[in-house]
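Raw record, unedited: WD40 repeat-like protein
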Amino acid sequence: MSQDKISAFLDGNSLVWYHEDSKNLIIGNSEGLLKIFNVNEPDLEPVSIDINENLTALAAHGNTLALTCTSGNLEQVSLETNQSKGSVYRSELPLRDVIFINEGKRILSGGDDNKLVILDVETQSNPNIISLPDQLLNLSYNHTGEILALSLANGNIQLYSVINEVPSLIHTINNALPTKIHTSLEKIDYNDEHRDELVSTKTLWSSNGTHLVLPSSNNTIKVYDRSDWSETKEFTIEGSIWDFALVEPFLVVLKENRVQVLDYTSKRIVADKSFDLEGNLALNVAVNEGDVYIGTSGGEVISFKGLLERSSEPQPSKSNGISSLFLDEAEEDSNDEAEDTDALLRDSDDEPEPKRPNENGYRLHQEDSMVIDEEEEDFTERRKRHKPNGFIPPRHIPTQVPVEDLKPYSPGSTPWGGLENNQSSSTDRRYLFMNSIGYVWAVKNIADSESTNQQSITVSFFDRSVHKDYHFVDYFQYDLCSINDKGTLLAYSGHKDKKSTDNAKIYYRNHDSEQESWERKIPLLKEEYLTSVSITSSAQSTGDATIVVGTNFGYLRFFNHYGVCINIMKTTPVVSLISSSASVLFAINQLTNGVYTYSIIDVNLDYKYIQQDVLLPLKKPTNQDIPLIKGTFFNEFNDPCLVGGADDTLLVLQAWREPGNSKWTPLMNCHSIVTEDGNNSNKKNWKCWPLGLYKDQLSCLILKNNKQYPAFPLPLPIELEIKLPIQIREKSQKNPEEIFLRSLTMGKLVSEALNDDNHNEEQDEIMERLTQYSMMFDRSLLKMFGEACKETRLNKALSIAKMIKTDKALAAAAKISERMQFMTLATKIGKLREELVSLSDEEE
């Protein structure tokens, strides 16, 4: 380890930033110049770029650099052309910090005007602005959880979720930081007048996003757990903290004239180096692997080569995949769980099962409090005890492996790499599940080979007033999911390990409490794996929610809310499963290549088939980038809905309560609606991502820029009015024929719910909606009748009049005929009225 000086500038305030993508050291100076150094070739001349004076902060992502200064300018610099792009935003007061979020798609900045500015990197226009209760001092971003931490002048930290286009406040940690007010408005004199602005108020996130690290007002550095924002750890630092960096397992702390390196596991100081700046002060610290760089108020930069090289102290094991930053807590938890598991085995009458995955030194989940053991014997163990002259009742009836390899599927899920991440990103992410309640997404580190067996999972909600987002580190690579209004169900399908028969597992936890969490294995045959899982929309008064697990061999297993297997069935290979609030299961199965069927099972009626193996009008897209199913869900009356990827059309299943009479009705072509039938050139590449159907509105996400899948940030859900695809729309004009057919279709759907025992409490609402559809029905027919009369198509007008079902509407049609002097038509309508009245009298 050696100490060197980089004479980047003769004077001025120099801030350092290590650029991970290019492996270059970026030094910005307050005199209006920026230099880029190749740390691997120190003899090369640095690249110089002119920037705004009085620099306050800099950040980089990919080939873009963002800078802020006391003049209030947010400046962008291209690292491809090594030229400034100029200011992209201007504030009346100084900006103090800047950061990139959402894979570099957005820039966030703020400062003395109590505002958070959110700017889209591509459009660079119409920034979103959020008002803050005080001056913004610093920003830090948790890329695994899409969470932003804002340091405010009053000492509070505000936590925002930035998964959506408009950030939402999720929590505030009060009085966590030293209070600090920036008074510098032009040049910053750290050596004298503005020395108090050096006190650190920034926050940092652990690499897995589970902990927030920050300096407190009493010269300590505290660690907060993201799950409940409780303080979990504290480091005592002698003297004021001016800056710090987190490079696990090290904490680098910068003070007035020295830099210290602490080990998280032992909390001991493993390196302590002082330096003399001849009257100047240290400003900030940047870390490049083992090297530490320090910006100063005198223009130069101090570097300590190899300062973070590991000392001779024993290294904590990383084999369990947990960051050594919190290894002591993790080991304590794993020991507790091992004792609990041993106790369970001692109390059980069954013979001990093979060594469980959680005996490798880590918990099944950081949030687990209860583990339910597998109650069924392992199939391979049964095979070992099989004798030639003995007979063992088969647990499974062997079935033929499907011709086509089914991919595990959850509604709203996206593939890895399908979110169009920035190529320079070290992480990959995907949505595991999405519906009108919320969404579950996973993030994994693709740059760190040691982290390939773990991912961070976050459960988010569109309405955060009902539930708070939560997350955990997943060591089993869950790839299937389902959520309802009570909890989350996750599963590892075993698709990657089809030769193994004991890898598949499911995990459930309540949204608001982890006390009822449980996990259990699912027995499989060779080449079998899970393809879909589902949980009923909500618990009924008659019992708790039901969990369903399906496989590519067609096995359906049903579990109660607490993980007890309550039934098992055999069907054809399962493609998708969804469950309604009435415990009605809608299953899509594969009959053969490209041929699919559906079944409807009433779980509450002893698993009775209401519809069984009915051919499904689902076509596999020719484009492999387009999913087979874009959305599958129930409407508010438990009618199954489906949006296929090939035709992008919303279908609803009618008359499914009557065996043998179900029929699919197209309610809208999603692509036509969002693109206005291609008539709007600005929307020709837009796409629709369906979430749910409520009344006449499709809840969905609009995907712009020709994207196939929702990305980050997630656009806010919108509602589209359904329009049956019966003819090309003529701009914004309403088509009475479409309104007639829509009111007829939706009226039938609603009327079917009248006979459903699950909607007894909604009878008044149902009758009100039926009245509305009846009025729509009559108005649309009268408008069609009038148009036919204008066109002198009297036979068409009469055919329309015959569809009118109320005397009031028929009387209106007769008046239209008389007004247009079609007396013969008026006479015929009069006879229709007489027949209608006569029919009504007979019914009475």
